[in-house]
Design goal:
Order of helices and strands: EEEEHHHHHHH
Shape: rod-shaped
Radius of gyration: 51 Å
Number of helices: 7
Helix content: 40-55%
Oligomer: single chain
Strand content: under 5%
Length: 336
């Protein structure tokens, strides 16, 4: 079927199924509605003039199928009936097939406006923006070397007082020596408890398993403190190792076995050394009689007290060194 552009009067061959659809003229590039073209007879050519030969033209490509969402139809002006031409029909130029166009009445879908993505808040590998260790650092000078000094002095004074008691020294001399030994012993215990408090404060999270005050305070509950020491000290290694893994901190993990052995010796030293030394004053006159009447049992007790004290002394130094290094690694500092 033939159709004609009402604007430039160009003719094209189209499929009958496209009648009534919109198309774009390949010559004048103006949109028009496809209607059937009725051919009219052409007057014969003048004598002596060659008859015009109509060259075949490529039919326009079919118009894009109509969109499901129909827009209100656009009223197009009625096509004028073609009038008979006086001369020969002009030869339609060979043109390229028109590109299918979207009907002007249908607007394309609006594109989404790209919004700038919000910058992600910077976080650490565990996802927390809080400081790594709260700025807590542990000084080896205080928690290792000072503790060693005061503990050695307390041990020397305690051993001297025990020797004088066995040799039946004067009561006033024994009280003075044991009092001096207790001062240094209490100072060493205070340093030790301060280490417990600070090491738990260093890994304090939003919901810590054991708070620093709880870690130290429960050690003063009689009988229960034995269980608490065996729970709290090895538990620190587990919480510390989980802390550095959760926050992706490069630090050496703490050995739980060492802390468990230290917890046992810590309570043994408390029962066989610390408590007897603090409560020795009412019994200074009976020490010599105990060694006279129960010599074997007395020396066995001294042996256990010495073994517990030496074992506690060695394991504390190892634990304190590792704890200071571990806590200082959280803040990237080296404790002096």
């Amino acid at each position: 079927m033939k159709t004609q552009c009402p604007n430039c009067k160009s003719k094209f061959n189209v499929n009958e199924t496209n009648v009534g659809k919109q198309a774009k003229c390949p010559k004048c590039t103006k949109p028009f509605t496809i209607e059937p073209f009725i051919e009219t007879p052409v007057s014969p050519a003048k004598q002596g003039e060659p008859a015009a030969v109509e060259q075949p033209v490529k039919s326009p490509e079919p118009v894009a199928p109509p969109v499901k969402i129909a827009a209100p139809p656009v009223k197009s002006p009625p096509l004028a009936r073609p009038r008979p031409l006086a001369g020969p029909e002009p030869i339609a130029p060979q043109v390229k097939s028109p590109v299918p166009i979207v009907p002007p009445s249908i607007s394309a879908q609006p594109t989404k406006q790209e919004q700038p993505e919000p910058k992600a808040a910077s976080k650490s590998a565990s996802g927390d923006t809080s400081p790594r260790s709260g700025g807590t650092t542990l000084s080896k000078t205080v928690f290792v070397y000072c503790w060693m000094a005061v503990r050695i002095i307390a041990g020397i004074l305690g051993a001297l007082g025990l020797i004088l008691a066995v040799q039946k020294g004067t009561n006033s001399t024994l009280i003075a020596i044991f009092a001096a030994a207790d001062v240094f012993l209490v100072c060493s215990v205070a340093i030790e408890l301060m280490l417990f408090y600070k090491m738990w404060a260093a890994i304090k999270d939003s919901q810590p398993a054991i708070s620093p005050g709880k870690a130290v305070g429960f050690l003063f509950i009689p009988v229960f403190n034995i269980y608490w020491a065996l729970l709290m000290l090895p538990g620190f290694t587990e919480d510390y190792n989980s802390f550095i893994i959760r926050r992706s901190i490069r630090a050496e993990r703490l050995p739980m076995t060492l802390f468990l052995i230290y917890a046992v010796l810590f309570m043994a030293a408390a029962m066989f050394v610390t408590i007897p030394m603090i409560c020795v004053f009412p019994f200074t006159g009976r020490i010599s009689r105990a060694f006279d009447g129960y010599s074997f049992a007395s020396w066995v007790l001294v042996f256990f007290a010495s073994a517990a004290g030496v074992g506690h002394f060695i394991t504390y130094i190892l634990v304190a060194m590792k704890t200071c290094n571990a806590v200082n690694a959280l803040s990237g500092k080296q404790g002096g």
